[in-house]
Specification:
Layout (H helix, E strand, L loop, with lengths): L1 H28 L6 E8 L3 E8 L7 H24 L4 H16 L10
Length: about 120
């Protein structure tokens, strides 16, 4: 049970890092840097969820905004087969749960507002 809990915790941290790295490196490819800050989201208005929040660079075209927004979950899911191959099977479940629950806690800082 302890091993499972540790694997889920490691998967959650990796999923967050992959997600935010997707945004960051995509923006970097477009010649901009994203600055992150820590914030708390509220899942269903009750449960506090720690998260990274960033602001879309002002000079981006609509196309660049969409690509940068999608890159978060894109990086998360592109990494899934790699983490699965090294034995971190919980990562896939954590990444799917992140996508499913995201709209319930993201609020004004949602990646989906640019799609």
């Amino acid at each position: 049970m302890e091993k499972l809990l540790l694997e889920v915790l490691i998967s959650a941290v990796l999923a967050c890092l992959m997600h935010e790295a997707g945004h960051y490196f995509t923006a970097l490819c477009f010649g901009e840097r994203i600055v992150f800050r820590f914030a708390w989201g509220k899942l269903w208005g009750k449960v506090s969820i720690p998260r990274g929040v960033w602001y879309m660079p002002e000079g981006f075209s609509v196309r660049h905004k969409k690509i940068t927004a999608v890159a978060g979950f894109g990086a998360e899911f592109l990494a899934a087969p790699i983490f699965y191959a090294v034995g971190l099977w919980a990562y896939i479940i954590v990444a799917l749960l992140h996508l499913i629950l995201y709209r319930f806690y993201a609020g004004e800082a949602s990646d989906f507002k640019w799609l």
